[in-house]
Amino acid sequence: MGSCRGSQEVVLSEKLSCRETSSILSQVLNLLAKSPDVQRGITRIFHRTATPAEFIGAFQAILLAGKQLHKLYAEDYGNDVMEGVKSALLRRLILTASSSPLIALAAQLLSLLNKDSANLGDMLNLFNVSSGQFPEVASGQIAVQIMKEKLDSLIIQYRKELGMRNLDFTSVSGVTHLIELSADAMVPSNWFKVNSTKKTVRYHPPEVLATLDKLALAKEEFAVTCRNTWTNFLTSFGKYYAQFQSAVQALAALDCLHSLAILSRTQKYVRPTFVSNDEPGQIYISSGQHPILASILGEHFVPNDTSLHADGEFCQVVTGPNMGGKSCYIRQVALIAIMSQVGSFVPACSAKLHVLDGIYTRMGASDSIQHGSSTFFEELSETSHILRHCTSRSLVIIDELGRGTSTHDGVAIAYATLHYLLHQKKCLILFVTHYPQILDIQNKFEGSVRAYHVSYLTMQKPLSLLESRSESDVERVDKQEVTFLYKVVHGASDKSFGLNVARLAQLPQSCIRRADFLAVKLETGACLQIENVVKLLVKKPQERPKACRNPPDPPKIMHLGFEEMTEACRRVFYSIKSALHSAEGTDRISRSLKEAQELARIATKRPPEDFLPVEPQ
């Protein structure tokens, strides 16, 4: 019974400690949120470019935060809350940011300055000379004060000489220490007349002018002394910089960890699992989510799985329509990987990965006018950096490489880059593209590369593309509604739906209609190209066996999408070209023609007996 009660008390004490620790951390972080950028302030102080107001703001934040954290383990408060903090990292950060010497030093430095003068930018009254730390400033203040007292003694002297008890200095239009008398008043002949009216005349006695010159000189020397003293004060901070920099970094780490803890608790994140360095590189994410979009969309966000393994499928070629969610998916994987590396929980049902030595991304488009670099040059420069520095333990993410140049060059560069990563680096890869030719790389790296696409739904077209020949019918033909499902699934996408994005962007209707018409025309042209090739390879009716009395049906080629049709044409023509230019003999020519014939047969879904036999000559 006693043992049970003791354990219950320990658990209760730990819960109270955690609650109090969290409460104090929240207070500290709320304080820092209202304070200026402490890290920036410390850096500017170290480089002697900080203003007095920046110095006061930074050190007040450090001092107040340190005092709050000191409550967690100070004996004065009668409860060592730190005993309930099990994390060695958390304990070390708290102690670094709230050590007694640090708090005492921050308080001492603040006591040397006048807060109100600092906030007003008044350098002349900034330093607390009573501390005895600034003798030069004290001497300058005394010199200025002596000149002011000299002026006060002069006005007393003039009152006696002129017999005017109420005589005093006056200022007019910025001119100070004037003696204003009536026009008929008798004054010494050496007094300098400054200005006058009908009834009054204003004078500057020679002693006043001499004293004013000395006062101006004393003030100027005092201002120089204050500026030099401030510079020396900032310079002397250099010996404390490392100590305060460590405290600021500890506060920043506490801020980060506390924010991640709150996020993980409120968003129901999970702890990622890391495999040992002896195991192959891998990333497995179950129901992963984009941390920012998921917090905005809530339950409407569509999660996705990710599976990459160095000994299996370590490259995903992601295709899909524009605005379908491709970039969101690859950014999601990158963010989950980064969050895992920094020790955060992640937005997923589960996550397992190895410790990455780098996460390399090539996304977006931008130029560098000041360096004379085009968008495409910047794109390839970033790609070059990735190819030079990534390793087999890296994650590489490339989004639509090659779109900044012609289609043929873009395809060639994208294909060669992916081939280099697969063959030379063998890192984990997410490769987004709209080029269907890139998918051919699956045949060279079977089992290592797999095509994926972001799924979608479309409404059925009312007419076949080949049935529409006029531009007026195009809007009725190709205007279809696309519903994005945002789910990454196996297989390649055969459409990009660029015209759908054009409609969403509200391009002029005449422009969209013309684009629709040209798209239909191009797609129809591709269909006719492959149809002509098929006619060359298919048997003529009189050459068919006698048992087959019915004429052959026209080639059924419209079951393919435009990209697939273009790819089929490209392969057929490539095989024919290889046969025509082959110098390896009749066997090679025969194989190339048979390959072209087989591709045409697959594209048209015709039986083998409909094609002429290819025999070596």
UniProtKB/TrEMBL annotation:
One of its GO terms (molecular function) is ATP binding. PANTHER family: DNA MISMATCH REPAIR PROTEIN MSH3, DNA MISMATCH REPAIR PROTEIN MUTS FAMILY MEMBER. SUPFAM superfamilies: DNA repair protein MutS, domain III, P-loop containing nucleoside triphosphate hydrolases. Belongs to the DNA mismatch repair MutS family. MSH3 subfamily. GO terms for biological process: mismatch repair; mitotic recombination. InterPro entries: DNA_mismatch_repair_MutS/MSH, DNA_mismatch_repair_MutS_C, DNA_mismatch_repair_MutS_clamp, DNA_mismatch_repair_MutS_core, DNA_mismatch_repair_MutS_sf, MutS, P-loop_NTPase. Residues 394-410 form the DNA mismatch repair proteins mutS family domain. It comes from Platanthera zijinensis. One of its GO terms (cellular component) is nucleus. The keyword Zinc does not apply. SMART domains: MUTSac, MUTSd. It is found in: Nucleus. This is DNA mismatch repair protein MSH3. Its main location: nucleus. Keywords: ATP-binding, DNA damage, DNA repair, DNA-binding, Nucleotide-binding, Nucleus.
